[in-house]
């Protein structure tokens, strides 16, 4: 599969068009994402009800006591939504961390090792990138059993291929520069070279793709949970809550709407944040994702 | 490249699936004797050396035989073909509809990017791309099947395609669901490709020679702008296919996705293996076709032996 990397010259016209919206993307994204993060953090310290408390009456509509209503066992949905926010943040952070670590290591190996290893790794990455995340995730879930850990591991591994390819490309470009050659000539070892020159130059190009992967990871986990391959309630992710709510949607529509809205808010928030970061960090890079 | 990828997929699937739990336990009852367990293992063929099992599996594959299901002992290949009757039309129709939505939306969003409706189109495509596909499905079912009762809420006619009207009606909402999400995604790429083309010097030069905007766009713009869009189309077609796996659950459709999920729950190796192998092959083939089409359209790519190498060289 070919993904043509656009040169800086190709990207300029579109960038000119969109300059000036920078702050809006960053602010709206920051606020949306910030609210979700705040809810997730708050859920660690204070919840309106115990997650397994079934005293609320079944499928109640939203009220003063139960802000989001109750599920079919009488558990408070607002509590579950807060826990869902925590799980979504865990999923995003965990899989992005795995993607970053695995991707950067593989990318650096490909960039610094010899031509043969580079070719082999690059072909492997092409295949890995073509392989759909969700199919890989289902394979991992089939292997390790349905749990949040399996989902995070699978989504992170799937995302690492893209990061590895980016790292490889940027790292080899940096390694070809004069100052790196000068440093190598003066006796700097490969590992120290990577730490001093390559990583600081590679890192900034990875921030935006990693931020986009955060949103992708949250959707992927929600999809897995929705088809029953996630952790069960009451510590359920938004995807699992939607699955539970689908059968009772006519009686309790709020249960089928609120988790979806939160998912969308999270994804749009983090995507806008990524767009805003890109506009700030790299004004020329907006046209092609 | 394609063959290498395929071989790799076969090996990985085989290895990973052999790491799974023991399928024998899915077949026997609680308190089975050692002899009964051994008999079940022998029947499934999982008691033999792993390399021997792998060799048999590869031999089977060369005869296009995907083995028999552990749970019902029916040929996996036949079952997959039967399921494709649902999944393939679903994927293809959804993909076509998403292109039909995405091209005008993306074009107008770029062409009229400074007007309110241009902005609205890009905002809607941003939003649509961020919505989980299964949630769109739930909302559509609730609105158009449960409340308005226009479409069936789920399921597929037992007679398969004998009654094409009923089959199409059952697929309408699933197709719409996938098309909304992947159409929005695609529209964003069409928009950025169009923006890119509109800002190019050759467009200005073409206008300066007296060509109309439409003429210049059709003659020069599309040929240039379509190259990145095609590689996205191939990826999009694979994500549409994977989206179908999820959406089949929303609408209780007996497709490939449903088969995969049930097989995972029942630890039915040959079925999981078969479905994943067929899906992977389809995805890889699509990528290959996209590469070829790109090379036909863009002569610059033809000069090099491998498009991948070229992309790497540029970077």
TrEMBL record, chain A:
Residues 85-274 form the ABC transmembrane type-1 domain. Pfam families: BPD_transp_1 (PF00528). Gene3D superfamilies: MetI-like (1.10.3720.10). It comes from Labedella populi. Belongs to the binding-protein-dependent transport system permease family. It is found in: Cell membrane. The chain crosses the membrane at residues 26-49, 87-111, 123-144, 150-167, 202-229, 249-274. One of its GO terms (biological process) is transmembrane transport. This is ABC transporter permease. The lineage of its organism: Bacteria, Bacillati, Actinomycetota, Actinomycetes, Micrococcales. Coiled coil: none annotated. Keywords: Cell membrane, Membrane, Transmembrane, Transmembrane helix, Transport. GO terms for cellular component: plasma membrane.
